[in-house]
Structure formats: C-alpha cells, structure tokens
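Section 5.1 Outputs to date
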Amino acid sequence: MYWLILPYRRMFEFRGRSRRREFFSLVLSGIAVFLLFFSVFMPVHLWDKAAAPETNRGDIVAIFGMAILVLVWAWAHMAVCIRRFHDQDRTGWLYLISFVPYVGGLIVFVMMFLPGTPGPNRYGADPKNRDLTDVFG
C-alpha cells in the first residue's frame, strides 16, 4: 500500500530521485482508479439517462470528477517522471519529449524502464540505499 500512495504524497517534489517501482505503482494505481471510476459512474450515468433523458446531472458530475482525477494523476506522473530522469542522472527537462506527437510519450515510457545510476549522483542519494560496495561486492 505504501508504494501506491507514495507517488501522490510526493507529487509536488521535483527534486531528488525515484525508483522504477514508484513510477510503475503510479501507472497501475492510475489504471485501477480510472477503472473504479468508470465502474461506479457508468451505471449511474446509464440509470440517470433511463430515468430522465433530458437532464445532464450525471454527465456533469462524471466529467468534473474525471477531470479532477486526470489533473491529479497527470501532475503526479510528471513529478515522478522528472525524478526518474534524475535517478538516471539526466535532466528533468527530458520530460518535454513526451509532448512530441505520436512517439514522445512512448520514448519517455521506455526511458522509465532504464535503471538508475548506482550510488549518489548530482540529484541526490540512491533511492535503493545501495552504495558502491554493494555494486562491486
């Protein structure tokens, strides 16, 4: 449970480093939250349309709720991606690659699979708490 909440607790931290586990727990928790959201609001939407087809109450609530979820998740995603770049001893500005149409998001996603640098780098201590003796020992 700790790894599912950690990216949201650190969503305003753009300094430091993050492990791959933090990134992928954010991705999986985002998928789970969106599936839960749709499983709750789609039946409400369909019931609302069947009961009163001329009203849009359910649509407005669903759109507003989904917009909030997307904004929170996107902000946390940006923060954890920047920290993942820092873990690889790269600048966080590489996140701007994700705005390149068609391939940018895929390039950033693939870069999130790359391991971080062992030991401390210019962005902070190793999030795995390993030192060089663990690497060569």
